[in-house]
């Protein structure tokens, strides 16, 4: 596939989608609910869509993480060990999705998209105080196991990964919203890199398409992360829901038509 296979209009739309995806992902999570189906609608085969999307969003995640590091919001006691398990889990998940045929992978994605959309409704207004200290079970069992399992999901599909990590940190480690978001970004970047390397070695990334979309995603992620984490989350969720419903219905109709 080359640039000539995609119209200028499709490329412009994808650029806009990935900017918006990076923006909302850095604040409320759920960017993959727009970017993955957008690539599929553009005619990208499912495993290539996942690999190309992963290559793009890793850079957006990294740019958002930079802001958290600058403001010293990362809890390294939790993240340092967890990133190792996240990397391993992502590799396993990516190998699983690559083992499926294109038709089965498409059906799996269409099944997982609405389920992962439920992550939009997970509350983000956590109020627990972050104790800045964790017991051995939280540090050496809960955090690594949580990172491993969600890493597998991220490698296999990925949409909503950040939100699921934030929820897990809240429930099992009693983190507040900001600390959970920052630590989730670090672990999400690790799982993204683990998955990306696996996609790259299997040649399932369209680099020609990914490079301009990386710029869009970085701009969106950096712009979103500059805002206070809680600002505008409710409005952004409404936007995600409306956009996702429209995109998902379009994608579903496209594949129903192709199978009819």
TrEMBL record:
This is Probable membrane transporter protein. Its main location: membrane. The keyword Transcription regulation does not apply. One of its GO terms (cellular component) is plasma membrane. The chain crosses the membrane at residues 7-28, 48-66, 78-98, 104-127, 139-172, 205-223, 235-256. It is a multi-pass membrane protein. Belongs to the 4-toluene sulfonate uptake permease (TSUP) (TC 2.A.102) family. The keyword Cell membrane applies. Coiled coil: none annotated. It comes from Helicobacter cappadocius. Keywords: Cell membrane, Membrane, Transmembrane, Transmembrane helix, Transport. It is found in: Cell membrane.
